[in-house]
Design brief:
Blueprint lengths: L3 E5 L4 H12 L5 E4 L4 H11 L6 E4 L2 E4 L1 H10 L2 H5 L4
Parallel strand pairs: 1-2
Antiparallel strand pairs: 1-3, 3-4
Helix pairs in contact: 1-3
Length: 86
C-alpha cells in the first residue's frame, strides 16, 4: 500500500511546518523520527543525498523537504499528489 512518509526530528521548525501543511490537507502520514539515530540518518542520506529533515515522500514520489512541499502547494500541484490519500 502506498503511503505518505516524512522523516523528522522533534524540534525542527521545518518538520513542524511540513506536518502542519499535511495535517491541514486531512491526509494521514507516517512519521519517522530520526533524532539521535545515526543508522536512520545514514539511510536517509543514501536514499536522498541529503542529511537534512524533513524528507518527504508522497507515495513513490520523492518531494524533498519543507520548501519543496510548499512549492507544490503554491503551484497547485500538491492536492493532485495527495488525492489518492484522502
Amino acid at each position: 500500500m502506498s503511503e505518505i512518509r516524512i522523516y523528522t526530528t522533534r524540534f525542527c521548525p521545518f518538520c513542524i511546518r511540513a506536518k502542519h501543511l499535511l495535517k491541514s490537507k486531512s491526509v494521514a502520514f507516517r512519521e519517522f523520527k530520526v533524532d539521535g539515530d545515526r543508522a536512520a540518518r545514514q539511510k536517509l542520506l543514501a536514499e536522498t543525498g541529503s542529511h537534512t529533515v524533513p524528507q518527504i515522500w508522497i507515495g513513490k514520489h520523492y518531494v524533498g523537504g519543507c520548501d519543496e512541499l510548499y512549492m507544490l502547494e503554491r503551484s497547485g500541484k500538491l492536492d493532485s499528489l495527495l488525492a489518492e490519500f484522502k
